[in-house]
TrEMBL record, chain A:
Residues 169-290 form the FUZ/MON1/HPS1 first Longin domain. GO terms for biological process: protein targeting to vacuole; vesicle-mediated transport. It comes from Acorus calamus. This is Vacuolar fusion protein MON1 homolog. Residues 1-85, 97-139 are annotated as: Disordered.
TrEMBL record, chain B:
This is Ras-related protein RABF2b. GO terms for biological process: protein transport. GO terms for molecular function: GTP binding; GTPase activity. InterPro entries: P-loop_NTPase, Small_GTP-bd, Small_GTPase.
Amino acid sequence: MTSNSTSTLHLDNNDNHDDGQNPITNPNPSSPKTSEESFRSLTINEPDDIDNEDSAALANGSMDPDHGVRDEIEVSGDLKESVPGAEAAVVAEIVEEEVEGPSEGSPSPSSSGYAGERGSSGGGIEEADEDDDDDGLTVEAGSDSAAWVAGKRHLDEDDAFMSWRKRKKHFFVLSNSGKPIYSRYGDEHKLAGFSATLQAIISFVENSGDRIKFVRAGKNQVVFLVKGPIYLVCISCTEEPYEALREQLELIYGQMLLILTKSVNRCFEKNPKYDMTPLLGGTEAVFSSLIHSFSWNPATFLHAYTCLPLAYSTRQAAGAILQDVADSGVLFAILMCKHKVVSLVGAQKASLHPDDMLLLANFVLSSESFRTSESFSPICLPKYNPMAFLYAYVHYFDDDMYLILLTTSSDSFYHLKDCRIRVEKVLVKSNVLSEVQRSMLDGGLHVEELPVDSSVSSGTLSPHLGQDRLAPDGFRPPPVGIGGPAGLWHFIYRSIYLDQYVSSEFSSPINSSRQQKRLYRAYQKLYASMHDRDTGAHKTQFRKDENYVLLCWITQDFELYAAFDPLADKASAIKICNRVCQWIRDLENEIFLLGASPFSW
Amino acid sequence: MATTATKSVNAKLVLLGDVGAGKSSLVLRFVKGQFIDFQESTIGAAFFSQTIAVNDATVKFEIWDTAGQERYHSLAPMYYRGAAAAIVVYDITNPISFTRAKKWVQELQAQGNTNMIMALAGNKSDLLDARKVTAEATQTYAEENNLFFMETSAKSATNVNEIFYEIAKRLPRAQPVQNPVGMVLMDRPVERTAGASCCS
């Protein structure tokens, strides 16, 4: 574990900041401010701050193909949409008015794109009452979407429907000839005209040697992503940052590659008018479930995976048998429980990108067919090799736990089947299966269990036995129901070197999936602003609005995102963040997969 | 390829056919006795095994239920290579799926094992009112192409076990089949039976 055990977050009115750090700029953090204005940043002296920025960004694995080209198209919010059915015409006008706009090559800060963020939506679309991102409001977000049913909704709609146009977040995939490939809502084939319009906008800008990144129209943001012959577009009024929406488009593209590989481009070389929809037949649930995960799964923006909490020895036992299997010619052996990793092993020098894991898990979990029996299916890991298929053997041990064995050889099914039988025997014998089931029931870290006395730091206790740790000093945690100490409601800790994160369970103040999604969006915004390439990456941020106090802290080892009660005091919030980091370090053996390389244990 | 033991036979069997023809439903009916109205699309191919007793022998089917989606067509050889038997499935209410089935037959004849037993299953026979492909026309086609043909219904379990038993009976054995049953035996199965007995 590489975590820097000396990192501690200080603030100016704390005792020690004699090392020349900048004082906090917000003199009065607790005064209620309205949303954006209440943003304050807190500068911390981290000796190696600057050097880390790039490496941290690299560790994120976020690829920025647009790097260097920062032209933007911005449309002020006077776009009227009073006449149903005239949408195409209205959008086309944007092109004519605004395309001259982008200044050649001048790097305008992306924040300027948000000038109209809170701007008037005068005469704009009234968004649908239903927030269609969480079609299942009963979903226990953060855990899993048991109640949420994957699959396409509102198939009968098209762009002439008011209901379709009121949807808050659309995703489209189309070909560079304007043929629809995928639409989140409605029937692709009925959206041919709309797709053609999107294609016209993109190619109009491309023809002038430029590239369109986004268009802002009132409350709506239209984000474009061009991937060779495939265009991806998101139209959203969710106020998510441009960067977050673009990353989501990247993931949708990655999911498509996982199913088809990049060699699908050849179809378009042969025939530019190629209709790609049949190739994606039967995958609606894969895409709808990925899009749903944009509003509950932190892995979609953190570029990290998360592990099921398990005793170190249990995970080790699972890892040992997977390693055994990997040595027999399996490229990757992955044991998962829903979206959480139990253990994972790669053949020598093969490493699995967290985004690939996210897409792979989403693919397996959203395809009912894998649950019926053992399967052998070609899949592509876009970050591993976007051009080639691997072959995936998938087998469910029970309702939640499944094994994925990946190989490069198309005729090794029977070998992989044998491997699975070996793995299963060991897992049963060493009680891994039952431990996993127990951990599923117990859940992850609970903010109520955060040890308040930092001197108590035995790293051997299972997180499920959190109560034991609270005994010294007779301190009792606040009763379950009002969050953790100092108003701590929730946190996410991402280990940069491990590419893993751990997220606390949602507790009482954040119960409904709607609240969880709102918090998640706030984190996402925080993440985007912390990693903003133009204004430079930040190290810490303290943000207060009517919903939360949000605190983010990034070091070379980890990123911590924490949400507190909106009335939480800054000094104690910072203190609690330090506690959380200490707690995570104490528990790292159980909440992270350590030593994923074969020689470290 | 059928591997032979004294009285038990392992046989790889592959199901091919258009999307939604009912391949998975046939297999699930045969293997688990289940039927689901809304069967999800298969990804890649699902593997099942089922052992049945035919006459004196037991036949262990290793069944590959392939996905009908277009993107998997080029990968089909991976699953039918070395298969002892294939069931090509179409939906009697969908002429396109019958056209697609004929293409599968063609492909198997061109590239598959020449000894492969091929069955043609006209599935969804319970949907009589919606029938678009007649049994007579298919029967003629099947005879011309040396296939045996049955109309099946995974939903009502009609002819599902029968088609698998029929295949099992036709599989070559280590020992000559005791009672060749009163069915029409094509030339090829007879040859194969002879060939198998030579090796034993």
